[in-house]
Amino acid sequence: MAKRRTAERREPTFNPPSRDADGEGNKPRRAGARRKRRSPLAAMLYWCATLSVWAAIGCAGIIAIYAAKLPPIDALAVPKRPPNIAILADNGALLANRGDTGGAAVRIADLPPYLPKAFVAIEDRRFYSHFGVDPLGILRAATRNLIGGGAVQGGSTLTQQLAKNLFLTQERTFSRKIQEAILALWLEHGYSKNQILELYLNRVYFGSGAYGVEAATRKYFGHGARNVTLAEAATLAGLMKAPTKLAPNRNPAAARERATQVIAAMVQEGFITDAMGMLALSHPAEAVHEQGAGSVNYAADYVMDVLDDTIGAIDEDIVVSTTLNPDLQAAAEKALAEELDRKGAAFGVGQGALVAMDPDGAIKALVGGRNYADSQFDRAASAKRQPGSAFKPFVYLAALEKGLTPASVREDAPINVKGWQPENYGHEYLGRITLAKALSQSLNTVAVRLGLEVGPKAIIKVAHRLGIVSDLAPNASIALGTSEVTPLELVTAYAPFANGGIGVQAQIISKVKTNSGKLLYQRKGASNGRVIDQSHVAMMNAMMQETLLTGTARKADLPGWQAAGKTGTSQDWRDAWFIGYTSHLVTGVWLGNDDSSPTKKTSGGSLPVEIWSRFMRFAHQGAPPQPLPGGIWQGGAPQDFNPALPVATINLPPRPVGAPFSGETQQGTSGRLAPPADVPGATSRAAQAPSSAPVEASTGSSGLTPPGLIPNVSEPRRSHSAPAGGRNFFDTLFGG
């Protein structure tokens, strides 16, 4: 019994576990104790850590999404900077920069230390300590934008700004900021801090079309970045906030205020001393303003046109040395612009051009218009206009090459060429006259007679041989300069008269080098050889010198120098020219209107001669006078005329100021000189002329166009007379 009780007492009993409130079974008390000890701080940390992990995962996902839109990292490369073309004068001075940047790249080692530090102080004070992205800066900017309700902006490091300039657009979006940060990390991984800063200084936009610190310094202060002052450096760094609004040449007060903030930041960062800061504030930067009409840009544009044919494609910064003389360029601009400002309205002239060239073809000055800012069209090299009587020297040279001389005599009298009746100005005719007098007085009828005598094709051949490159129409009116040419090619074609008869090619580029000094092109002496016989050079100089002494250009004023040249005025007073030369320089002036509207009777012997004289007097200062090469022809008695008929004595009546001399203009009676044959409506008018119209001095219907194509003449006639009962020269030529 006792044993049974004992066994029963030892028999295990089953007690189901109790359930607490959450249905769990009893657990050790220690777990419950730990749960009770978790503090609010621990819970907050726990949840912060959890959220951070998820935020990191989310950011990684966002970064991956936007990174996928970028090129593969291993394919990324810093885009090559667009090449700059520095254009230098003949003395090595910088005339202009061309290219997308507006200035050459510079090394940070060549800059004053305070220049890059100014950008660091105001744009990215932790530049040398962050890894491309500044979280504190981003947080500060984000907080500011959140409070202000604005778009994402600010907080970008210099590296991020560089990344944006190199790879991205300027839009301000969240996605662009993410890509900017990714690219900044890539830049920081592949480049040193100084390399990044150098890239930044050479790529960032400074306003006014200037990319890079070199272009900006030259644009705003007129010198290179290597010579920048502390005040100028602060002004440049301040531009980064708003390049257009803070440009010192547009808003000097705002630019100065911003520069003060930059200097204060530099002092605070220890980049400069208080004394340096005070000195910079007491001598603020002063922006330069372009003086004059900016005509050097016409010359620079022409250099770029020529450069394409000289060295081809450009893939690095280059330096182009030119033949341009900066003093002559400035003098040419001043003479043209000031004379037009004073007298342009009175003469009805809106535009002009001037080209000055050494007798060897080197262009020393090229002004393509009144003001480059108003119009960039280059009238010196690109505008084709009728040269009028300035073309006559080629007619007379063709006559000399057929055996005539300045003393040869031709008739100045009315002439009818199949209904076309060119006239002298004022309807004055001087009878039998030497070629020398006829050219100096610019008599139209004599020029036309010579043109018919030698043949238009011979005239064209002479003009092209001397340097005219434009197409010329082989008709009777070519003797009066109705085929259009540019001022540059006309000046080039006059150069052989000034150098003794050698044909030249207009040149403006003398040398091209890379920035590192590698020679890409060097112009060597070259010419087209002799294009005028030496004896004919002397004859032409004699006749064109007379133009300045007693003829249509006698207002030309160049004391001490032997000079020659020819005036020209086109139909209806649309173009006024003077091309004149010495042994030192050949200069041509054109005046007119871009729409080809008539001027107020401006002749080549008026305003163009005045501009030419003003420029040439400056250009010849200090140069010892030299005679024209080839000398001046000394002729005898007039040739090929009846001694019983004396050579006409020329006594010109008093002339109103600004009016042309006899024969200077082709106008005469309105409509008497028709346009060249390719002008619309010309053919129909020409058809009205009877084929048997008299050709010698005669009257008849006016306003008819000259015949289109006239055969060349193989055997020139010395006289317009014919044997009794025979056919005269013009009858033979036209089949009359």
From TrEMBL:
<dbReference type="InterPro" id="IPR036950">
    <property type="entry name" value="PBP_transglycosylase"/>
</dbReference>
<feature type="transmembrane region" description="Helical">
    <location>
        <begin position="44"/>
        <end position="68"/>
    </location>
</feature>
<dbReference type="InterPro" id="IPR001460">
    <property type="entry name" value="PCN-bd_Tpept"/>
</dbReference>
<dbReference type="InterPro" id="IPR001264">
    <property type="entry name" value="Glyco_trans_51"/>
</dbReference>
<comment type="similarity">
    <text>In the C-terminal section; belongs to the transpeptidase family.</text>
</comment>
<dbReference type="Pfam" id="PF00905">
    <property type="entry name" value="Transpeptidase"/>
</dbReference>
<protein>
    <recommendedName>
        <fullName>peptidoglycan glycosyltransferase</fullName>
        <ecNumber>2.4.99.28</ecNumber>
    </recommendedName>
</protein>
<dbReference type="InterPro" id="IPR012338">
    <property type="entry name" value="Beta-lactam/transpept-like"/>
</dbReference>
<keyword id="KW-0511">Multifunctional enzyme</keyword>
<keyword id="KW-0121">Carboxypeptidase</keyword>
<dbReference type="Pfam" id="PF00912">
    <property type="entry name" value="Transgly"/>
</dbReference>
<comment type="pathway">
    <text>Cell wall biogenesis; peptidoglycan biosynthesis.</text>
</comment>
<feature type="domain" description="Penicillin-binding protein transpeptidase">
    <location>
        <begin position="352"/>
        <end position="583"/>
    </location>
</feature>
<feature type="domain" description="Glycosyl transferase family 51">
    <location>
        <begin position="103"/>
        <end position="266"/>
    </location>
</feature>
<keyword id="KW-0378">Hydrolase</keyword>
<feature type="region of interest" description="Disordered">
    <location>
        <begin position="1"/>
        <end position="35"/>
    </location>
</feature>
<keyword id="KW-0812">Transmembrane</keyword>
<dbReference type="InterPro" id="IPR050396">
    <property type="entry name" value="Glycosyltr_51/Transpeptidase"/>
</dbReference>
<comment type="similarity">
    <text>In the N-terminal section; belongs to the glycosyltransferase 51 family.</text>
</comment>
<keyword id="KW-0645">Protease</keyword>
<keyword id="KW-1133">Transmembrane helix</keyword>
<feature type="region of interest" description="Disordered">
    <location>
        <begin position="652"/>
        <end position="736"/>
    </location>
</feature>
<keyword id="KW-0472">Membrane</keyword>
<keyword id="KW-0808">Transferase</keyword>
<keyword id="KW-0328">Glycosyltransferase</keyword>
<dbReference type="InterPro" id="IPR023346">
    <property type="entry name" value="Lysozyme-like_dom_sf"/>
</dbReference>
